[in-house]
């Protein structure tokens, strides 16, 4: 267990490690501190030890902290510009290979792999019958939501707007008031599994891997192990997409050829 300058902060982190289904060691300490102090403000306490007492006695706060730490924010077609840039990649891949393996890791509540499945049906130049799509995440709750495939438009989330990149969204979702449910044909096109990108091994022969919006939160020492898992899952010529604010670690840059630098789409060329 690493040492923290503030001992109270260290005690909160140790409590999280022991009591909550979350591995704080992986994450950047500044990120952890921002999340914890935001919860402390909500609870109107200033000292870490006072917050620790609340965590020990109030299971709702434990849940609220867990929610805040796992940053499971996602979208359908998050960063639409990237999805436009991905169309030619999906067209080429499904043109050139009989079976194209796609891995969305981490997939959060499933909207990223569902976006791949919907786009490939909506774009007539992509042969969706050749795709096999797997979505994985460390969070069982996120995976449960992904398998359910039901999403709500709320004050802060407009699902209709998220799906607007598609020519005909209602071919892929049933809409009832504010509730959008992915149609069975789309839901069954994705396999969801639990997978920890730091602890668990690689998958086999992936042609296109998404690893978006996790690396920004991860402590730098764990980025290389994550990249090793990703590259061990790819072959020469496979594609990798990372988040629009993320970067490939310096020591691995030679192994990736940018396909679209701004959209962070790369081809693996070991
Ligand atoms: C911000 S979401 C990203 C979802 C999607 N890729 C996107 O860009 O919208 C981050 C996800 O990473 C998952 N996660 C955190 N640590 C992980 C790990 N070690 N292995 C796999 N998934 C992890 C969280 O549960 C969360 O669902």
UniProtKB/TrEMBL annotation:
<dbReference type="Pfam" id="PF03705">
    <property type="entry name" value="CheR_N"/>
</dbReference>
<keyword id="KW-0808">Transferase</keyword>
<dbReference type="InterPro" id="IPR022641">
    <property type="entry name" value="CheR_N"/>
</dbReference>
<protein>
    <recommendedName>
        <fullName>protein-glutamate O-methyltransferase</fullName>
        <ecNumber>2.1.1.80</ecNumber>
    </recommendedName>
</protein>
<dbReference type="InterPro" id="IPR029063">
    <property type="entry name" value="SAM-dependent_MTases_sf"/>
</dbReference>
<dbReference type="GO" id="GO:0032259">
    <property type="term" value="P:methylation"/>
</dbReference>
<dbReference type="GO" id="GO:0008983">
    <property type="term" value="F:protein-glutamate O-methyltransferase activity"/>
</dbReference>
<keyword id="KW-0949">S-adenosyl-L-methionine</keyword>
<dbReference type="InterPro" id="IPR022642">
    <property type="entry name" value="CheR_C"/>
</dbReference>
<dbReference type="InterPro" id="IPR036804">
    <property type="entry name" value="CheR_N_sf"/>
</dbReference>
<dbReference type="Pfam" id="PF01739">
    <property type="entry name" value="CheR"/>
</dbReference>
<feature type="domain" description="CheR-type methyltransferase">
    <location>
        <begin position="1"/>
        <end position="257"/>
    </location>
</feature>
<dbReference type="InterPro" id="IPR050903">
    <property type="entry name" value="Bact_Chemotaxis_MeTrfase"/>
</dbReference>
<keyword id="KW-0489">Methyltransferase</keyword>
<dbReference type="InterPro" id="IPR000780">
    <property type="entry name" value="CheR_MeTrfase"/>
</dbReference>
């Amino acid at each position: 267990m690493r040492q923290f300058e503030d001992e109270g902060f260290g005690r909160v982190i140790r409590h999280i490690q022991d009591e909550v289904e979350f591995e704080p060691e992986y994450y950047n300490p500044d990120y952890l501190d921002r999340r914890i102090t935001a919860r402390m403000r909500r609870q109107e306490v200033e000292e870490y030890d006072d917050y620790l007492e609340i965590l020990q006695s109030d299971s709702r706060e434990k849940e609220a902290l867990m929610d805040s730490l796992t940053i499971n924010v996602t979208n359908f077609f998050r960063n639409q510009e990237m999805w436009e840039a991905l169309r030619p990649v999906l067209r080429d891949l499904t043109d050139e290979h009989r079976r194209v393996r796609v891995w969305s890791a981490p997939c959060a509540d499933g909207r990223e792999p569902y976006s791949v499945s919907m786009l490939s049906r909506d774009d007539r130049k992509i042969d969706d019958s050749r795709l096999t799509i797997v979505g994985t995440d460390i969070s069982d709750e996120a995976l449960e939501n992904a398998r359910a495939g039901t999403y709500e438009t709320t004050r802060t989330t407009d699902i209709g707007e998220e799906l607007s990149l598609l020519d005909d969204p209602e071919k892929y979702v049933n809409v009832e008031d504010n509730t959008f449910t992915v149609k069975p044909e789309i839901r069954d096109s994705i396999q969801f599994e639990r997978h920890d990108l730091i602890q668990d091994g690689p998958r086999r022969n992936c042609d296109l891997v998404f690893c978006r919006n996790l690396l920004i939160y991860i402590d730098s020492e764990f980025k290389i192990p994550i990249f090793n898992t990703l590259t061990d899952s790819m072959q020469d010529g496979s594609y990798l997409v990372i988040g629009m604010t993320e970067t490939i670690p310096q020591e691995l840059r030679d192994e990736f050829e940018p396909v679209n630098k701004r959209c962070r789409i790369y081809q693996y060329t070991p």
